[in-house]
Amino acid sequence: MSLSKWLPMPLHSLLLFIVWLLLNNTVAPGHLVLGAFLALTIPLLCAPLKTRQPKVLRPLLALRYIFRVLGDIVVANVEVAILVLGPMRKLQPAFVAVPLDLSGDLPITLLASTVSLTPGTVSAEVSEDRKWLYIHALHMTDEQGLIATVKSRYEAPLKEIFGC
Predict the structure, then answer these.
(1) Could you read off the pLDDT of 32-53 as tens digits, one per residue?
(2) Distance between CA atoms of 163 and 102, rounded to whole angstroms?
(3) DSSP code, position 100
(4) Looking at 1-146, which runs of residues are DSSP E strands?
(5) 53-56: long-range contacts (C-beta < 8 A, 24 or more apart)?
(6) Structurally, how many domains does the chain consist of?
(7) What distance separates the 2 farthest-apart alpha carbons in the chain?
(8) Does 70 share its domain with 19?
(9) Signal peptide span per the entry (predicted)?
(10) What is the pLDDT of residue 22?
């Protein structure tokens, strides 16, 4: 049998062993044995739960994406503050269905999280077939404009980052 079958996550095992010894503040033989036992068994039990995630193919683009989202959050905070301080009857809340070109759970989750992090919009649901992202907007005057913004500012970079 291969070593990876008995030690599926060697770095995690080492980290668990070290943390166990540090938490107990001892290197007594009993704690060495118990720490080694836990360091081997916990990753073995957790290995079947591990799912493969797509690799980040363009890390610099990912960094640029993070800064873009942070900037959009600041701008959206100001816009939402202006809307909320104004007359409430002028708000036009709406739900929008955004067609998805992304594949994979992680990229879709990142897109939905990005939309929810940006004030004024919230991801309501992803369709079962993973073809639509339903977004609630606090104030919307142009549905196609919102869809185009989500697709160009967030979905397109995520497609490049993950190559999907």
Answers:
(1) 999 999 999 999 888 888 777 7
(2) 9
(3) P
(4) 94-99, 121-126, 132-137
(5) 53/106, 54/104, 54/106, 54/107, 54/162, 54/163, 54/164, 55/162, 55/163, 56/161, 56/162
(6) 2
(7) 71
(8) no
(9) none
(10) 94
Please identify which residue in the block is written with the tokens 């070109």. 101
Instruction: Mark whether 102 and 45 lie in a shared domain.
Output: no
What is the Cα–Cα distance from 121 to 95, expressed in whole angstroms?
A: 10
94 & 13 share domain: no
Q: How far apart are CA 42 and CA 96, in angstroms?
A: 44
What domain range includes position 104? 59-162
* 85 and 111 inside one domain: yes
Residue 128 lies in a domain: yes
Sign of the dihedral defined by the CA atoms of residues 125, 62, 155, 69, in that order: positive
pLDDT < 50 regions, the chain: none
Residue 54 lies in a domain: no
